[in-house]
Automatic annotation (TrEMBL):
Source organism, top-level taxon: Bacteria
Endpoints of the signal sequence: none
Region named Disordered: 151-199
All copies of domain Transposase IS116/IS110/IS902 C-terminal, residue ranges: 32-116
Native source organism of the sequence: Ammonicoccus fulvus
Native organism taxonomy: Bacteria, Bacillati, Actinomycetota, Actinomycetes, Propionibacteriales
Annotated protein name in UniProt: Transposase
Pfam family, one: Transposase_20
Biased composition regions of type Polar residues, renumbered to the chain: 167-176
Length: 199
Protein backbone atom coordinates (compact mmCIF):
# COMPACT_ATOMS: atom_id res chain seq x y z
CA UNK A 1 0.00 0.00 0.00
CA UNK A 2 2.86 2.36 0.81
CA UNK A 3 4.48 1.70 -2.59
CA UNK A 4 1.15 2.33 -4.34
CA UNK A 5 0.71 5.61 -2.48
CA UNK A 6 4.23 6.69 -3.43
CA UNK A 7 3.52 5.84 -7.08
CA UNK A 8 0.27 7.84 -6.92
CA UNK A 9 2.11 10.83 -5.46
CA UNK A 10 4.72 10.64 -8.21
CA UNK A 11 2.04 10.54 -10.91
CA UNK A 12 0.24 13.50 -9.37
CA UNK A 13 3.51 15.43 -9.10
CA UNK A 14 4.34 14.72 -12.76
CA UNK A 15 0.84 15.80 -13.78
CA UNK A 16 1.17 18.99 -11.73
CA UNK A 17 4.51 19.77 -13.37
CA UNK A 18 3.01 19.24 -16.83
CA UNK A 19 0.05 21.48 -15.99
CA UNK A 20 2.39 24.19 -14.66
CA UNK A 21 4.27 24.16 -17.98
CA UNK A 22 1.01 24.28 -19.92
CA UNK A 23 -0.30 27.19 -17.86
CA UNK A 24 3.02 29.01 -18.25
CA UNK A 25 2.85 28.65 -22.03
CA UNK A 26 -0.74 29.91 -22.08
CA UNK A 27 0.12 32.92 -19.93
CA UNK A 28 3.13 33.68 -22.11
CA UNK A 29 0.92 33.85 -25.21
CA UNK A 30 -0.95 36.80 -23.68
CA UNK A 31 2.21 38.92 -23.59
CA UNK A 32 1.62 39.88 -19.95
CA UNK A 33 4.51 40.87 -17.71
CA UNK A 34 2.79 39.71 -14.53
CA UNK A 35 5.18 36.79 -14.04
CA UNK A 36 8.09 39.23 -14.02
CA UNK A 37 6.81 40.54 -10.69
CA UNK A 38 8.36 38.89 -7.64
CA UNK A 39 5.86 36.50 -6.06
CA UNK A 40 3.65 36.02 -9.13
CA UNK A 41 3.90 32.55 -10.68
CA UNK A 42 1.98 30.93 -13.53
CA UNK A 43 -1.08 30.14 -11.43
CA UNK A 44 -1.18 33.62 -9.90
CA UNK A 45 -0.85 35.29 -13.29
CA UNK A 46 -3.51 33.03 -14.80
CA UNK A 47 -5.87 33.79 -11.90
CA UNK A 48 -5.38 37.53 -12.39
CA UNK A 49 -6.00 37.35 -16.13
CA UNK A 50 -9.13 35.23 -15.69
CA UNK A 51 -10.67 37.03 -12.72
CA UNK A 52 -9.82 40.59 -13.77
CA UNK A 53 -10.60 40.25 -17.47
CA UNK A 54 -10.48 43.76 -18.89
CA UNK A 55 -8.40 45.83 -16.47
CA UNK A 56 -9.62 49.07 -18.04
CA UNK A 57 -13.02 48.54 -16.44
CA UNK A 58 -11.38 49.86 -13.25
CA UNK A 59 -10.95 53.64 -13.66
CA UNK A 60 -8.24 53.89 -10.99
CA UNK A 61 -5.98 51.76 -8.83
CA UNK A 62 -8.27 52.60 -5.88
CA UNK A 63 -11.23 51.02 -7.68
CA UNK A 64 -9.11 47.93 -8.36
CA UNK A 65 -8.06 47.74 -4.69
CA UNK A 66 -11.68 48.04 -3.58
CA UNK A 67 -12.63 45.19 -5.92
CA UNK A 68 -9.88 42.86 -4.72
CA UNK A 69 -10.40 43.62 -1.03
CA UNK A 70 -7.08 45.36 -0.30
CA UNK A 71 -8.55 48.84 0.17
CA UNK A 72 -8.92 49.41 3.94
CA UNK A 73 -12.28 50.06 5.54
CA UNK A 74 -12.72 53.13 7.72
CA UNK A 75 -13.29 51.96 11.30
CA UNK A 76 -12.78 55.30 13.04
CA UNK A 77 -14.54 56.02 16.29
CA UNK A 78 -14.76 59.48 17.80
CA UNK A 79 -11.34 61.10 17.82
CA UNK A 80 -9.60 57.83 16.95
CA UNK A 81 -8.86 57.38 13.26
CA UNK A 82 -8.14 53.84 12.19
CA UNK A 83 -8.82 51.38 9.38
CA UNK A 84 -9.42 47.67 9.34
CA UNK A 85 -8.80 44.89 6.84
CA UNK A 86 -11.57 44.41 4.31
CA UNK A 87 -13.17 40.96 4.29
CA UNK A 88 -14.97 41.71 1.05
CA UNK A 89 -13.61 41.69 -2.47
CA UNK A 90 -12.42 38.94 -4.76
CA UNK A 91 -10.90 36.34 -2.45
CA UNK A 92 -8.95 34.55 -5.18
CA UNK A 93 -7.09 37.71 -6.13
CA UNK A 94 -6.69 38.67 -2.48
CA UNK A 95 -5.04 35.28 -1.96
CA UNK A 96 -2.70 35.92 -4.90
CA UNK A 97 -1.71 39.25 -3.34
CA UNK A 98 -1.18 37.60 0.05
CA UNK A 99 1.13 34.99 -1.48
CA UNK A 100 2.97 37.73 -3.37
CA UNK A 101 3.47 39.70 -0.16
CA UNK A 102 4.67 36.70 1.84
CA UNK A 103 7.09 35.75 -0.94
CA UNK A 104 8.56 39.24 -1.11
CA UNK A 105 8.97 39.29 2.65
CA UNK A 106 10.65 35.89 2.65
CA UNK A 107 13.03 36.95 -0.12
CA UNK A 108 13.65 40.22 1.75
CA UNK A 109 12.70 42.51 -1.13
CA UNK A 110 13.75 45.94 0.25
CA UNK A 111 10.61 47.88 -0.76
CA UNK A 112 8.33 45.17 0.61
CA UNK A 113 10.16 45.02 3.93
CA UNK A 114 10.15 48.81 4.20
CA UNK A 115 6.40 49.00 3.62
CA UNK A 116 5.71 46.16 6.05
CA UNK A 117 7.98 47.49 8.79
CA UNK A 118 6.54 51.00 8.53
CA UNK A 119 3.23 49.63 9.79
CA UNK A 120 4.50 46.90 12.12
CA UNK A 121 5.25 48.40 15.51
CA UNK A 122 4.08 45.65 17.84
CA UNK A 123 2.70 42.12 18.16
CA UNK A 124 -0.80 43.27 17.19
CA UNK A 125 0.21 45.10 14.01
CA UNK A 126 0.79 42.11 11.73
CA UNK A 127 -2.59 42.35 9.98
CA UNK A 128 -2.22 46.12 9.62
CA UNK A 129 1.25 45.75 8.10
CA UNK A 130 0.18 43.00 5.70
CA UNK A 131 -2.84 45.08 4.67
CA UNK A 132 -0.57 47.99 3.76
CA UNK A 133 1.81 45.73 1.84
CA UNK A 134 -1.01 44.07 -0.13
CA UNK A 135 -2.42 47.49 -0.96
CA UNK A 136 0.87 48.54 -2.53
CA UNK A 137 1.21 45.26 -4.39
CA UNK A 138 -2.30 45.77 -5.73
CA UNK A 139 -1.12 49.08 -7.20
CA UNK A 140 1.83 47.34 -8.87
CA UNK A 141 -0.40 44.71 -10.43
CA UNK A 142 -2.84 47.36 -11.62
CA UNK A 143 -0.05 49.36 -13.22
CA UNK A 144 1.42 46.27 -14.87
CA UNK A 145 -1.93 45.15 -16.31
CA UNK A 146 -2.76 48.64 -17.56
CA UNK A 147 0.59 48.81 -19.34
CA UNK A 148 0.02 45.32 -20.74
CA UNK A 149 -3.36 46.46 -22.08
CA UNK A 150 -1.75 49.48 -23.71
CA UNK A 151 0.92 47.34 -25.36
CA UNK A 152 -1.72 44.86 -26.57
CA UNK A 153 -3.66 47.64 -28.30
CA UNK A 154 -0.46 48.61 -30.11
CA UNK A 155 0.92 45.20 -31.02
CA UNK A 156 -2.05 42.81 -30.86
CA UNK A 157 -2.55 39.85 -28.47
CA UNK A 158 0.71 38.24 -27.46
CA UNK A 159 2.75 41.11 -28.88
CA UNK A 160 5.95 42.19 -27.17
CA UNK A 161 7.69 45.51 -27.35
CA UNK A 162 10.24 47.34 -25.29
CA UNK A 163 9.18 50.40 -23.33
CA UNK A 164 10.38 52.46 -20.40
CA UNK A 165 7.64 51.47 -17.95
CA UNK A 166 8.95 47.94 -17.39
CA UNK A 167 8.14 46.76 -13.85
CA UNK A 168 10.91 44.96 -11.99
CA UNK A 169 10.54 42.54 -9.11
CA UNK A 170 12.19 44.79 -6.55
CA UNK A 171 12.04 48.32 -7.93
CA UNK A 172 8.44 48.74 -9.00
CA UNK A 173 6.85 49.81 -5.72
CA UNK A 174 4.53 52.80 -6.24
CA UNK A 175 4.44 55.61 -3.74
CA UNK A 176 0.85 55.35 -2.55
CA UNK A 177 -0.88 55.94 0.73
CA UNK A 178 -2.07 52.65 2.19
CA UNK A 179 -5.11 54.43 3.64
CA UNK A 180 -6.66 55.14 0.23
CA UNK A 181 -10.39 54.96 0.75
CA UNK A 182 -12.30 52.10 -0.89
CA UNK A 183 -14.59 53.12 -3.70
CA UNK A 184 -17.95 51.66 -4.62
CA UNK A 185 -18.79 50.28 -8.05
CA UNK A 186 -15.36 49.81 -9.64
CA UNK A 187 -16.71 48.92 -13.06
CA UNK A 188 -17.97 51.58 -15.39
CA UNK A 189 -20.14 51.59 -18.49
CA UNK A 190 -18.82 54.92 -19.67
CA UNK A 191 -16.70 55.07 -22.84
CA UNK A 192 -13.11 54.20 -22.04
CA UNK A 193 -10.56 57.01 -22.37
CA UNK A 194 -7.37 56.36 -24.33
CA UNK A 195 -4.97 54.26 -22.30
CA UNK A 196 -1.84 55.85 -20.92
CA UNK A 197 1.15 54.08 -19.42
CA UNK A 198 0.68 54.03 -15.67
CA UNK A 199 3.41 55.71 -13.68
Amino acid sequence: MARELIDDIRRIDQRKHALDLEITDLVDTTGTRLMELCGIGPLGAASLLIEVGDITRFPTKAHFASWNGTAPIDASSGAHTRHRLSRAGNRRINSVLHTMGQTQRRLKIPEALKCYNQHHHGPHDELKAMRALKRRLSDIIYRTMINDALDTTRTGPGGHQDHDSHSSAAGSQPHTDSSDKPLHGPATNQPKPPLKHAS
